[in-house]
Amino acid sequence: MQAECTRGCSMQTIIHSDIQRLPHIDEAEKILRSCVHCGFCNAVCPTYQLLGDELDGPRGRIYLIKDLLETNDIDGESVEHLDRCLTCRSCETTCPSGVQYGRLLDIGREVIANQHSTRRKPNPLPHLVRWIVPRSWIFEPLLRIGNMVRGILPQALRVKIPKITPLIKSNKDVAMLEGEMTDGGLVLNKIQRKVLVLSGCVQKSATPNVNRSLESLLATHQVAVEYLSNEGCCGALDLHLSAHAQAKQRMRELIDKMHDSLDDYEAIISTASGCGVTIKEYPVILADDEVYLNKAEEVCAKVVDAVEYVAQFDFALPATNVTRVAVHTPCSLQHGQKLPVALEDILKKVGVELVETGEKHLCCGSAGSYSLLQPAIANALTSRKLDNLQRDDPDVIVTANVGCQMQLAASADIPVMHWLEFLAQATTQQHNNRSA
Ligand code: SF4
Ligand code: SF4
User: Fold this and answer.
1) From the CB of 88, is ligand 2 less than 6 Å away?
2) Confidence band for 2, pLDDT divided at 50, 70 and 90
3) What residues does each domain of the chain span?
4) CB distance 46 to ligand 2 below 6 Å
5) What does the pLDDT look like over 224-236, one tens digit per residue?
6) pTM over 0.85
7) CA 374: distance to chain centroid?
8) Separation of CA 11 and ligand 2 centre (Å)
């Protein structure tokens, strides 16, 4: 590892000639040059905080990637330090030089996967996860079987099986029938606005009420929701498991499906911030793809997280509602999509009482498939996150990503909901209270 510069100068990097022409290497070099190795990022890095090793923090990992690009070589131990990164991007939020660490890590992992895959210990789990999760015809039955036998499993295994919530009935049809009474009778409100909502792979099977809830909420504002048939995976899972070629292929397929009907929708909404952050970055990931770059840019111009879209509407809680809420803003929303307070703002506007929580910047340990691949670190982070969320005795925890919801729900003492489920439930209470 190169000695640390104490004068704030940037990194000089001489890329190895064998990899100079690989995709994204120029981008990686620019990112490396932007780091002044001040180390501020280590203070907010969950793995550095837990493990206390410089090479398990962002600055050390940046040096490892620099070394990889300069020597076109890496040893197995260094690969493990990189694989222990959660890709939470907390370091990016704190970095005074705007270092795009997440992109650098992705590029580094792609070089490792393409040039040095033998340095990684053989492990069938990532392949299994990538094969099963996007295939709902096998993922869903497995999830159901897991839920059935959950009670007899040891605790360590039980927390790995997400609880499926029973499907609620969307009130979108009821809401759509709202209208104005005139001399000529009830004139139904016309649906003028239409959005495309993404289903996601895990969310569709594990927490289907999230999108049902969004349908209900938007219906009260005369916005119709549509879905893609045969949506497929956004590519995030493959990307984070170092299967870059497969990830890019999935991205192209989803772009094609969305691009054909772009003009029909005022927005494309992601209700899982872990998927949304990847989709928003399609133009960066596909920057070297001459055929798809333009399409990716056009699609991404319409992609928003649900917090961005729903913020324009007013919802009010019933006066009798006394729920106290702890908010966990997922890393993919606060650090990835740079929306650190959007979720809290919506809940405050609605009139929800938010409790104080600590260490908001820290990851909950879910991080996509990380909780399966690095269970010890993931569980330690989940305990720490739950201590922070539950310390002021809230009634419920709300979040904005299916992975965080499942990870926290498996060990929490109180219910953990997606914020859309929470808001739709509260709004339904309001309707009920009014009609009582
Ligand atoms: S990534 Fe940013 S915060 Fe971290 S060492 Fe480099 S310049 Fe400093
Ligand atoms: S992405 Fe998260 S875990 Fe990885 S180096 Fe940055 S702060 Fe640490």
Assistant:
1) yes
2) very low
3) 17-119, 136-310, 324-435
4) yes
5) 999 998 899 999 9
6) yes
7) 18
8) 19
